[in-house]
TrEMBL record:
CDD domains: M48_Ste24p_like. Residues 328-408 are annotated as: Disordered. Its main location: membrane. One of its GO terms (molecular function) is metallopeptidase activity. The chain crosses the membrane at residues 12-45, 51-70. It is a multi-pass membrane protein. It comes from Actinomadura yumaensis. It comes from the Bacteria. Residues 332-343, 351-390 have a biased composition (Pro residues). Residues 391-400 have a biased composition (Low complexity). Its cofactor is Zn(2+). The keyword Protease applies. This is M48 family metalloprotease.
Length: 584
């Protein structure tokens, strides 16, 4: 306890010293500027002659810099001006199970229970505590839990995440964090004010603050990383090491997947004045799509391979996984008895009884078998969490058999279907600034927006085929097929995605898109929702994925026959010059 108090005092002293250092630097520079102006005036008066040309300009510039510096130092964000987080504020009456779980975890760690709990949009969780008098007076505790996070974790993993957040409270991080954050924003505000009009004198005055900001960031980020490691240890004490590791991995994978999902599936709908009613069901379906599993495994490998940078506020996920694994086989603390779940939180809206709880993944498996979701129907809230790859062998994680099977974390939310729909609308309105958005389902979105958008993207394949060398008075798809037929698929892949880590995968996706557009345009196909791509073409013939596989295997003739693409004769023009390509 004494060590904890000593560490908390050290952090408080550091935060206070950095904040006072900013004010000391600002006051010192203002004093130097006024001293320089006074010295110039005295020098001119002592010479008893007309001031030299430019004297007034220098004095005005220096005084303007001092005024801007004082304005930046005294202005900026004040405590509490950011307002509540974007999302849904809950209460024990509206979300009884979630509140009970949060209070139980806070009690297990000796932390104050949250005063407010917000459901927020993304794959995230956070805790904040507004404090006064440099953190000496505790304030309101606010917990935020992302619906994206609830979509991918089970209850044991969510306990690890929330225990980590409450560990920040017991460590005093939330009391000192606002102080450090305000100091950082104060420095940034000062630099912005000094540089906003581009004047040289003000830019020179801003330079010391830029250097001080680098020192400030490097020092506070090192402290922040130490706080994250301490909070991870709190998570292990409550939820156990295997659950904490799985939560880290799944969160890292899902965070990347959610960004991709919003960019490729949701943003195009927003641009057209629509919002997806089943946004989170779609996200779960994407994460469990069998065709996405290899991609998700690659994302996991990339996440675990990332190194911690000196400017990072958190250690890398790979480092945190290794540190947790080094703690050994830590069993979770026995949970307190939660409040009885409400019926709407115990089962998905379309089910009369809760599904059997999925078993946690084994550390020896690279990924459990994926659970497919129907490609044309958004997955309901009962879709299992996406698979998580195991800890790398070097981590030596104890077996996860000690962690009991746990239900999906979304079951902690009362009436999840209504809650997710409400959140999807909140996010859409915040992203677009429009209050007149209209709802849309995934199949309708594929037919009206996502599919036609993919068809337009097929132009890239045509233009790259022309650049590699083909006859440009033919259709773009026919040109690309001819290049593959003549053994130039690799050239086309490199031209299509020169900077891609896997150009062949980019070429496969491009052919898939172009073939789907061909089927819809010329063969009475229709666009439907797909979780391996934003949309898929459905028709009476061979599935698009199989056609694309035939193309890349060199079976061009059968694809041309089925799609009635004439082909040849072609005259190989070789690589085109820029002026020739302009006429293509």
């Amino acid at each position: 306890m004494k060590a904890h108090a000593s560490l908390l005092g050290l952090r408080a002293g550091l935060a206070l010293a950095l904040l006072l250092g900013f004010y000391a630097l600002a006051l010192a520079l203002i004093a130097v500027i006024f001293g320089a102006v006074a010295g110039l005036v005295v020098l001119v008066v002592a010479q008893d002659r007309v001031p030299p040309a430019g004297f007034a300009f220098v004095v005005v510039a220096l005084l303007g810099g001092a005024f801007s510096l004082a304005r930046g130092m005294l202005s900026g964000a004040r405590r509490g001006e950011d307002g509540p987080p974007l999302g849904i504020e809950t209460s024990p009456a509206t979300q009884p199970v979630l509140w009970a779980e949060a209070r139980n975890l806070a009690s297990a760690l000796g932390a104050p229970a949250p005063d407010r709990i917000h459901l927020v949009p993304g794959v995230t969780a956070f805790v904040s505590q507004e404090s006064r008098l440099l953190g000496l007076v505790k304030g309101e505790v606010v917990l935020g839990v992302g619906l994206g996070l609830l979509s991918v974790l089970n209850e044991a993993e969510l306990r690890a995440v929330l225990a980590h957040e409450f560990g920040h409270i017991t460590g005093g991080d939330t009391r000192l964090g606002p102080l450090v954050h305000r100091a950082q924003r104060k420095i940034q505000q000062t630099v912005r004010v000094l540089e906003e009009d581009g004047r040289l004198v003000k830019a020179l005055i801003a330079r010391p603050f830029r250097l001080y900001f680098l020192l400030f960031r490097r020092t506070t980020m090192a402290v922040s990383r130490a706080q994250e490691r301490a909070a991870d240890r709190a998570a292990v004490r409550v939820a156990g090491g295997p659950a904490a590791i799985r939560a880290l991995e799944r969160t890292g994978i899902a965070d990347s997947a959610f960004d991709h999902f919003v960019e490729r599936y949701v943003t195009p709908l927003w641009r057209c004045g629509r919002w997806p009613e089943e946004m989170y069901a779609g996200f779960r379906a994407l994460c469990t799509e069998p065709a996405r599993q290899d991609e998700l495994v690659r994302v996991r490998e990339a996440v675990l391979a990332e190194e911690t940078g000196r400017w990072d506020s958190h250690p890398s996920i790979g480092e945190r996984v290794r540190l947790i694994a080094a703690l050994g086989d830590t069993d979770p603390a026995p949970p307190s008895a939660p409040a009885p779940p409400s019926p709407s939180a115990s089962a998905p809206p379309s089910a009369s009884a809760p599904p059997p709880a999925p078993a946690p993944p084994s550390p020896s498996a690279s990924a459990p078998p994926p659970v497919p979701a129907p490609p044309s129907v958004p997955a309901p809230p009962s879709v299992p969490v996406p698979p998580s790859a195991s800890v790398p062998p070097s981590a030596s994680v104890p077996p996860s058999a000690s962690v009991p099977p746990s239900a999906p974390a979304w079951r902690l939310v009362a009436d999840p279907e209504r809650t997710e729909r409400e959140m999807a609308l909140i996010v859409a309105r915040a992203a677009t600034g429009s209050a007149t958005l209209r709802p849309i389902g995934w199949d309708e979105a594929a037919a009206e927006i996502l599919g036609p958008g993919l068809a337009a993207a097929g132009d890239a394949l045509r233009s790259r085929a022309v650049a590699v060398g083909a006859q440009w008075d033919r259709g773009g798809l026919d040109q690309a097929l001819e290049l593959v037929a003549t053994g130039r698929a690799h050239d086309l892949a490199r031209a299509l995605a020169p900077d891609a880590a896997d150009p062949d995968a980019a070429l496969r996706n491009a052919f898939r898109t172009a073939l789907a557009a061909e089927i819809v345009e010329r063969h009475a196909g229709r666009w439907t929702a797909s979780w391996s791509a934003p949309a898929d073409a459905v028709w009476d013939g061979t599935p698009v994925d199989e056609l694309a596989a035939r193309v890349l295997s060199g079976d061009i003739a059968s694809v041309r026959d089925e799609l009635d693409i004439p082909g040849g004769p072609f005259r190989d023009l070789g690589p085109l010059h820029a002026e020739a390509a302009a006429h293509a």
